[in-house]
Specification:
alpha+beta, Immunoglobulin-like, 3 domains, five-stranded antiparallel beta sheet, 5 helices, 14 strands, 29% strand, binds calcium ion
Length: 260
């Protein structure tokens, strides 16, 4: 009897050991296929995130009231490659993306061609514009920096001079394996300043004897009303003196401040 009990106990212990082993094995098996494990296993062979995050941005630029200007949208993608992007851009009041009945004036940048990439834009209810750019053949943008799109913007005649900010949000970049990267939102700066013709110190659009007299009076301490110092500084050294007086004379006579 004792022997049978011993055998039974031995059997139970070995069964328990076998059971606990299978549980352990199950646990190991499970850990290989848990949610993170599966995500990681799927992600790893497709893409490894680069050390420096990619960005989409627009360099600070200046524009004069009434002026139309082409602005580059820059993609910086060190160690990464993308086939498409989207973003929303909201310009300040008084500055807009130029459009006509065919749509917004937005084209592909120097890092691709219109054969490789299609660019589309649509107005948003908040006054912004959503821009999409994609490749039908999964072409990537060449290189790791530079323009992926060019936007034509215009400042209204009424806009006041000063510094303005604008936002680019909802930015998404897409890789050839269709994995995506979401860069930080971007805040850009636009300086609105009146344009001028060098030498046109009274701002009437012409450079003539009146500007020459204006510079002379300014140097002598009787600066005329509306005197444009930037237009008067013909050699661009930040001072207005006899050299600029000669510069304005040269512009009138030869069209160039140096007289050459
Ligand atoms: Ca003038
Ligand atoms: Ca000067």
């Amino acid at each position: 009897m004792m022997r049978i009990i011993n055998l039974l106990v031995a059997f139970l212990i070995s069964s328990l050991c076998a059971w606990s082993q299978s549980v352990t094995i199950d646990k190991i098996t499970y850990s290989l296929y848990d949610r993170d494990g599966v995500t990681e296993a799927r992600r790893a062979p497709m893409h490894r995130a680069p050390e420096v995050a990619s960005t989409i941005e627009i360099a600070p630029f200046s524009i004069a009231p009434g002026e139309e200007k082409e602005i580059d949208v820059l993609l910086n993608n060190p160690g990464d490659a993308f086939t498409s992007f989207q973003f929303d851009i909201k310009l300040p009041e008084g500055i807009s993306v130029v459009s006509d009945e065919d749509g917004y004036f937005i084209s592909v940048g120097s890092r691709t061609t219109s054969r490789k990439h299609t660019i589309e834009a649509d107005g948003l209810s908040n006054g912004g514009v959503r821009v999409l750019c994609y490749s039908g053949k999964n072409d990537t943008f060449s290189g790791e920096e530079g323009a992926v799109a060019v936007i034509t913007v215009k400042a209204s005649e009424e806009i006041t001079e000063g510094e303005y900010q604008f936002k680019m949000t909802n930015i998404v970049l897409s890789r050839p394996d269709v994995s995506e990267f979401v860069p930080e939102n971007f805040t850009g700066t636009i300086t609105v300043e009146k344009g001028f013709v060098l030498g046109d110190v009274n701002g009437d659009g012409k450079v003539n004897i009146n500007d020459y007299i204006g510079v002379a009076n300014h140097i002598l301490g009787n600066s005329p009303a509306g005197f444009n110092e930037a237009a008067a500084d013909t050699n661009g050294d930040g001072k207005i003196n006899i050299n600029d007086y000669i510069g304005v004379a040269n512009i009138i006579l030869t069209g160039s401040p140096s007289g050459k």
